[in-house]
Design a protein that fits this description.
Structural class: alpha+beta
CATH architecture of the largest domain: Roll
CATH topology of the largest domain: Ubiquitin-like (UB roll)
Order of helices and strands: EEHEEEHHHH
Number of strands: 5
Shape: elongated
CATH superfamily of the largest domain: Beta-grasp domain
Strand content: 15-25%
CATH class of the largest domain: Alpha Beta
Distance between the termini: 97 Å
Bound molecules: FE2/S2 (inorganic) cluster
Length: 174
């Protein structure tokens, strides 16, 4: 039965949208190809990289492995719903997080899910929530800093320590 296209309605970013896909089509392709929501990216296709992360009823899910037929009336949230000025997006800009950018929609959506359940996550909680989001450019430290900043937990700027001991300057030789 999964091979026949079926008209159905999805709740995406607060709107009821009609889609026409086989029940086994991954949600990712419905979002990108039918609905034109291309902010959600395709990385591995096998739930290993996190590039395709969206929220389903507030939980971070890999849309590449989620059959659209299983979504039902659940509320789907994609990166487009954040609008560009979400506190996490502002922190991402402030910390200059992206490099190539490909993984970053998924990273941000995982971070949104994290902060919605744990507004002040410690390092272990950040690691646990973000572990499945792979970044080939290695932006992990900046991602962590941006999450802490958005959570109001930015570390204080490193104190500038002045050397109180005067440096002895040798007298010029005659
Ligand atoms: S594309 Fe879905 S986890 Fe990699
Ligand atoms: S910024 Fe390039 S893969 Fe993450």
């Amino acid at each position: 039965m999964g091979h026949f296209k079926m008209a159905s309605t999805l709740d995406v970013n607060g709107k009821a949208l009609n889609v026409n896909a086989t029940a086994d089509t991954p949600l990712l392709w419905v979002l990108r190809d039918e609905l034109g929501l291309t902010g959600t990216k395709y990385g591995c296709g096998v739930a290993q990289c996190g590039a395709c992360t969206v929220l389903v009823d507030g939980q971070a899910m890999r849309s590449c492995q989620l059959p659209v037929g299983s979504v039902g009336a659940a509320k789907i949230t994609t990166i487009e719903a954040l609008g560009g000025n979400h506190p996490l997006q502002q922190a991402w800009v402030k910390h200059d997080v992206p490099q190539c950018g490909y993984c970053q929609s998924g990273q941000i959506m995982s971070a949104v899910a994290l902060l919605s359940t744990n507004p002040k996550p410690d390092d272990a909680a950040i690691t646990a929530a973000m572990d499945g989001n792979i970044c080939r450019c290695g932006t992990y430290q900046r991602i962590r800093a941006a999450i802490k900043d958005a959570a109001g937990m930015a570390p204080a700027p490193a104190a500038v320590t002045m050397n109180a001991t005067p440096i002895a300057v040798p007298a010029p030789k005659a």
